[in-house]
Amino acid sequence: MTAVRMREISKRYLPSGVLANDGAELEVEQGSIHAIVGENGAGKTTLMKVLAGLELPDSGDIEINGEPTHISSPAHARALGIGMVHQHFLMFDELSAAENIFFGLEPVQKPRLLRLLGIIDSSGLNEKAKSLANEYGFSIDPSAPVGALSISTRQQVEILRQLAREMRILILDEPTSVLTEQETEALFEKLAEIRHMGRTILLVTHKIDEVMQIADKVTVMREGKTIGTYSVASTSANELASIIMGGVPSEEIQIHKEHAIKGASVMRIEGLCTHRHHRGGVGLSEIAFDVHAGEVLGICALSSNGLDELEDVLAGFLVPSAGRCAFGGLHFDVRKVHEYRRFLKEGKISYLPSDRMRRAAALSLPVRDNFIALSRRNYFSRGWIRSTLARRATQEAIHAFDISAQPEQMTAELSGGNIQKLAIARLFSKEQPELFILCEPTWGLDIRSTEQVHSRIREVQNAGSAVLLLSSDVDEILTLSDRVMVLYRGKQVLTRENSGYLNRALIGEYLLGTRSA
Amino acid sequence: MMPAERELHSPARVMLAVGVSIALSAVVLALFSKDIGSALEQFFLEPFSNRYFLGNYLADAVPLMIAGLGVLIAFRSKNFNLGGEGQLYASALAAGVLALHLPAGTAPFAVWFLAALTGVLTGAAIGALSGLLKAVRHVSEMISSFLVSAIVINVSDFFITGPLQDPASNFQTTRQLAPKFLLPRILAPSKLDISIGLALVLIVAFMIVDKRTKIGFELKICGENEEFARYCGIPVAAYQIAAMAISGGMYGLAGALLVIGPQGRVMRGFSSGLGWSAISVALLAQGSGAGIVPAALFIAFLGTGSDHVMIGSGIPSEIVSILQAVAMFFITARSLPRIWKKRGQS
Fold first, then answer.
1. What residue spans define the domains of chain B?
2. ipTM (interface pTM)
3. pLDDT given at position B156
4. Would you call A344 and B5 a contact, using CB atoms and an 8 Å cutoff?
5. Do residue B228 and residue A360 have CB atoms under 8 angstroms apart?
6. Highest-confidence segment of A82-86, A250-254, A435-439
């Protein structure tokens, strides 16, 4: 039986006029896991938003379980049993994890009077959330306010929210992009079980290996159109990759690294500590490293092991509790964040945030405004905007980084991958800094864009910048880094040259804490 | 979240709100008046019927434009100034006291300038206090501006009824300014004066700053996403304080212009709800500088129209409050169009 049938779906975003879906088609069998793949801006998320009632299509027909329907709102979609786990979390930051999961389904107090008043049984709520989380192999603190949680924990809350509602058609938009390998495994096991119970799962992803691992069928999209739907059993990963890329073979990934000439030390950090509980994290203890001109230092950790805290310290967002820093010929106490922030402001350090939605963009402003926001000195002359220059520069960056966007378009209309590309384009269009701090630079990017970003990183490295690469993606760390550092529970458990000695499995042992220096 | 925010900016929504509140005004008039025909005429047509009425109507819109613009600037940076009543009142009093104490031979232009400046500085200082508390101590600017305003109103009341009371008057008021110190009138004999020109200049200036300058750009980013603003190296705290100071300063300017303009003195209860009406104006303008003019004209029209019916048909003045509330309800209620949309489908 067909659970979802979407025909000739077209959606144009106004006022920019970008055609996100152009007669897209989708047919999903009930009780299957159906992957939807394509490059950034192929229209995958838009098509899913139409299905979830978040966007109204301009034209097209939808049938759910054989019934023609016009999905008019998220509530309507929910009533049809369609739930969506978003790539960018839509939740109440001030409410606890448990309250977010059971929002609208809260258990009320037992005594009748309290029940009449609708008083929420909050301890019961936390219990319920805890047991739900355990059932699915997630580890969350149900009473923690969601805004204080790390990005991966917030995503778990988002997934649990849909699971708690027992949706019959579950849409997951890049669910694994922020999960660790174990969490991904646990999720996939559960997804397989949900499928077994006759439910339908739609999985939007970039990762072909995940498609091969878990999906039954896969639909490939490109430029808003459906290219085709294939049975995973009769398709190979290579075939799929070439269909996604539009028949153009992808450039070979250059695993082999040229040995760049290591220059002088650009930044040295010693004895860096932070207090616990920032963003629900573990706190850092006694972190020390230096990074040289022309060198990439890759810093790797699984979620909640200190990478978020390190990012926030290096971004000037978090005041550490102790530590010393040497940069640009100055030595200073890292607690004097003002001294450090100056380097970011003066453009000596360029920083790419991992959380692109919250920190790297103002979504309700046009793409142009987001593009020029970081280099205001260049685009304002004596306080007045140079709009022709700003528009031209934005257009050039859009072209150079292959972003599906217009300078006047609202940034909120862009796909997640395109917003990430915009943030990267903005950073690499600036004057070259002494140090790059790049956090999860390729999260949510397709293969081609990931390669583009990696080659940009190599370019700036060869041009003499130092690069700090904070990433939870071990392959990325191994591909790009000259030296690798691993954090486990806020401690530095490995710092080593990236020679033949290091490999995926070995780093995995350090990441999981089964091996230490 | 995003579609809802975009809906808020839809001009159709505003026109709907305006239309509904005008229609409802007519219904209320019909309920309360004996002669519906003349009540409607007094409400809708009389304010425009002659030079005198039209001038008074426009004069009422001027402080709304200036103060409304101030509220709008604070909204831009996601700051909500609820202290307008006190800021306007205290600034008017400060400007009035200064004007009363200037030597009789002072050039009128100097009086206007100094009084306006005093008003701006007084209002800005009160507003900046809340901005400072927010930036340094994370105190909600809504609560602090409201409470500070409540204090300021009482202190101002004390001065007007005590040390500054005009002994020759039966009203609780300061002395009257010398006529030559008042702003020149246009459309005499109405109370409209040249301050309407200043209001329009300020609105145009804001639109230019907003669209074309770095300050406007940075203010916008602070309002849209504070974390992103910090990432961009924008001094967020400074903008918080500045936005509240500007907002207070505009209220102060509106107050000062009333003293050296239509009022000529500071009476007890001088602000008479202007602080709140200015918020209505800013909401109605939907974040647009150009929108301030029609919004202020509309809110002023509700007040003027009901004054006319009150005098002409003896309808209680409270209906203006009802009408304003209805207008605000329709403008701020985000969920209504969705409910309608759904009904249309089922």
1. 50-274
2. 0.81
3. 94
4. no
5. yes
6. A435-439
